[in-house]
Amino acid sequence: MATHNSWFKSLFSYKLKLIMKSLKLFSSVFFMLVIHQLQAQEKPALGWKDVSKWTFNRPATLSPNGEWIALASGPVEGDLKMTIRKTNDTLSRNYPIGAMANSISFSNDSKFAAFKVALKDSEAKAAKKTNKPVYDKLLLVSLSDNKQTTFEKVKSFSFSEKSPEWIAIQFAPAENASKEKDAPKGTDVLLYNLITKKSYNVGNVSEFAFNKTGSQFAYVIDAAGQNGNGIFLRDMKTGITTALDNDKAVYQKLGWNEQGTAFALLKANKNDKYKDDVYSMLGFNKINGDLTNKVIYNGIDDKIFPANMGINTNATPFWSDDQTVLFLGVNTLTKKEDKKEEKKEDKKSDTLAKAKPEVKKDDIEKPDMIIWNWQDKRLQSAQQTQEMRDKNFSYLSAYRIADKKFIQLADSNMRSVSVNPKSLYAIGYDNSKYELMGNLDGQSYVDVYLIDLKTFGKKLLFEKMYASNGGRLVIAPNGTLASYYLDGVFYSINLESGKTANLTGKIKSSFVDELDDHNVIKPATQNLGWSADSKYALIKDNYDLWKISADGNSITPLSDNWKSKKTEVATRFRVDADEKGVDLSKDQYFAVFNTKNKKNGIGILPAGKSKINILFLDDNAYQSFSKAEQAKVFTYTKSNFQQSPDYYVSTTGDLSTAKKVTTNTPDQAKYAWSSGVKLIDYVSANGDSLQAAIYLPANYVPGKAYPTITYIYERLTDDLNTYTMPTFPGGGFNKAMYTSNGYAVLMPDIKYKLNDPGMSAVACVVPAVKAAIATGIVDEKNVAIHGHSWGGYQTSFLITQTNIFKAAAAGAPLTNMISMYSLIYWNSGGTNQAIFEASQGRLTPGYWDNWDAFARNSPVYHIKKVQTPLLLLHNDKDGAVDFTQGIEYYNGLRRLNKPVVMITYRGENHGIAKLPNRKDYAVRMMEYFDYMLKGKPAPEWWSKGVNRLDMEKHLEARAFDGGEEN
C-alpha cells in the first residue's frame, strides 16, 4: 500500500509538473500573441500625406543575357532611383534619376546600360514656375566595373541594335533655337564607341536609326537654310559616310525594314500650287555605299496619282518583304487660292475705286453655323472632334518598282487596309454601307476584301460580316491563311483558293463568351492566333485551349478538360518580341486562372508537346512574364492583395529555381494593413450564383463588425488577389487606404439582364451586402456604397431602390437614361445611342419603343424614394457622361431637400487628372465616409457648405503637400 501511495504521489507530482509546464507555455504563447496584437495595433493607419511619400517599384527590364535586371523606384511624389542588380547574386547598384522614371536600355552584349536622369523634384517645380527649359542627362554605365559616363542635355539615345559597339546620343536643341514650324529641327548627334571610347559628332541631325544588325547608321540632316540637307548612311565598320540624297528639302519619317536591309523615308519640297509641302518618297535597298539602290516616287507628278492628294507625312513608308513594292500613305492636299490677274486700271477706274473701295473677302460678315443632317454617317460633333484625325488620315497605297505603278489601296469607303505577312496580300475593311446604322445602334458590320499585291486586283471575301464580336481576320504567318468567327463558330480560309474550313464545329464546347452580357450577337471567345508554321490555329473556348489544323480535320485539346475544374487558359505570354506566330517547337507559357476560387498561375506547353502543364496555381497574381532575349532566364512578378508585386527570376524553364530579386513598398510594414480577403458565394435576386470579395480591415478581429464601403462596377472578383498601390486615384477611392483606416471593402459581381441594367445591379448588390453582413464582418448599420462612371450610375440608382446603405458617393453618374441616350459622348463626338444599345448601357431599342425600361432604370424617375445622403462628383468638362446628368440629379435631390453635395473640378474630364484635384477629392471622400460611418465630426463643406466668396480661403486652408490627415 505504501509502495502504491508512493507511486501515486510520484505520478501526481509528475502530472502536476506537466500541467504547470503547459500552463507556463500557454501563458508564454498567450503573452506573445497579446504583444503581437498590441504591436499590430500600434501601427498607424495610412494617411493621405503618407501616400505622397509612398515608395514603390516601376516595371523592370531584363538584360539580353539575363544576368541583370533594372528598375526605377521611389515615392509617388519626389525623387527616384534606378537600381541595377545581378539576377544570380546579391550585387546591386543604385543611381539617382530625379523625379521622372525614364526607361533603361541595355547594349546587346549586356555590358552597358543607359538611362536618362531628370531634374530633381524641387528643381523641376522651380523651373516650371519660371518657365525655364528643363533637360535630361544620359548616364552610361559599364556594368562590369560600374564606370559611369554622363552626357548633358540629351534628347534621345539608341544602342546599335544587335551590334554591341555603339551608342548614338542626340542632344537637345539650344535654348534660343527657333520653335517656328519651318525652323530646322536638326541637333548634334554623338556616335560613341563603347569599346574604344572614341566619339564622332554629326551636326544638324533630325532623325537617325541603326539597322537591325547595327552595321549601318542612317540619319537625316536638317540644317539652317536647308544647307546640306539630305539622307546619309554611315557604315559602322569602315566609318565611310555616303550622301544618298541631297536637296533643299526636309527629310523625315525614316524607317528600316525588319531585316535591316532596306529603308525608306519622305522628302518635302515647297510647291507654289499647294498650301502644304509636297512630299516624295525615297526607298533605299541593296545597301552598298554609293552603289546603294535608290527609288524615287514623286506622287503628284504621276498621271495616275489621285487628284488633289499628296503623299502623307503622317505615315512612315515601308518595303514589302521581297522589296518589290514600297507602301506609303496619301491624303488630301490643300491648294492655294488662285491668284487673280492684276488688271491695268485707267485713271477713271482708279478714281471710282477710290470712291467705292472694293469689299475684301475677309471683311464679309459670314454666319457661324453647323448644319446637322439626318443622313450624316457621323454626327457633326464627331466630325469636329475627329477633324485632325480625318485631315491626317493616311490612305494606304502601294508603288510597284518594276513597272513604276502606283495604286491607292485604301479609300474613303475602305479606309482600313492592312498588309499581310510576306506582303502577298492585303485585307481591306469597308463599313461605309453600315457606318450610319452602326453609329446609331452599335451593331457593327463590314465588307471584307482581299487585295492581291502582285496584280493589285481586289475581290470581295465577305459581305456584311458581323464585326461587333471582333469580326476581323486573324492572318497566319505565311500570309495566305486566315481565321475568322461567324455565328458562334471559328473558320479558316485559304486566301489563294478561297476554300474555307470549319475549325470548331466538331468540338463539343461553346465558343461563345459565356460571361459577356452585352447586347452583342454570340460574342466570341479568344483566338490566340496561328502557329509559326501556319499549320494550326490556337483557339480557346470558355476554358480550354485547342490546337486545330488549318483544314479543321485535326483537333488537339492542349488543356485537359479544365472546364470541369473551372480553370481556364487566360492568355498566352509572348516572350519573343520578334516572333511570327506561336512557335510550338519552343516552350510556350500561359496565364492560368480558376474562375471559382480566383487562383492564378502559370502553365507551360513544352516544346513539341500537346499538353499544358500547370507549374503553379495559388492565391497570388502573376504578371509581367518575360524571357531574356539570349538566355533561358525568366522573370515575372508575384503579388497578392497584401503583398505588393516583386520580381522573381528563374534559370529553368519550369520556373522551379525562381527566386525573389526585388523588394517593393518598403514602407508598408510601418502601417496598419488589411488582414486579408474573403471570397463569398451568394445568389442574386434573379437566381444567379455569384461571388463577392470582402477585403478585411487592418487589425481585423473575428466576430467584430466593421464599417464597410461597397465598391461596384461590373465583375470585380477576378481581381481578388490584385494588390492595390496607395495613390491618389482619378475617381477618389483607394482600397488600400480604406482598409488601412479600419474599413472593410465589399466588391460584388454584377450580372446584367438586357433592358434592366439598374435593376440588375439591385438584384446583385443588395443580396451581396446581406451575404456579407451574415459573415459578421460587415456592420449592417454602417454600410456605404461608391462607384465611378458606370459604377456611379449604379450607385445613384441603388439608393432609389434600397435603404440598406447609410451613405453613398457617386462619381460622374448617368442619372437619366432617356436624356442620356441621345446626348453626345464628347470625348469622341459620337452619340450615346450605340453605347446604350450594344455596349455598357444594355438598353435597346430607343426609349420611344422601350419607355418603361428606360424609365424603370433611370435614377431621376425614382428620386423621391432616395433617403441615403449622397456625395456627387461631376466635372464640368466631362466628355463621357454629360455634366447635365449630374446637375439634373443634384437639382432634383436639392429640390426635395435631400442631403446631397456635388463637387465639380473645373476643366476636368471624366476622371480627375490634375494632382491637386485628385488629392482634394480623395480627402473629401474619406472625410465624408468617416463622418457618415464612423461618427467623426462632419466636415464643414458637407454640413454648411462654402459660400462662393469664401471658396478661395477654404481651398487655401485645406491646401496640403501630399494629403491632409484624416
Automatic annotation (TrEMBL):
Keywords: Hydrolase. The keyword Hydrolase applies. The lineage of its organism: Bacteria, Pseudomonadati, Bacteroidota, Sphingobacteriia, Sphingobacteriales. InterPro entries: AB_hydrolase_fold, Peptidase_S9_cat. Residues 337-358 are annotated as: Disordered. Residues 766-934 form the Peptidase S9 prolyl oligopeptidase catalytic domain. One of its GO terms (molecular function) is serine-type endopeptidase activity. SUPFAM superfamilies: alpha/beta-Hydrolases (SSF53474), DPP6 N-terminal domain-like (SSF82171). One of its GO terms (biological process) is proteolysis. This is Peptidase S9 prolyl oligopeptidase catalytic domain-containing protein.
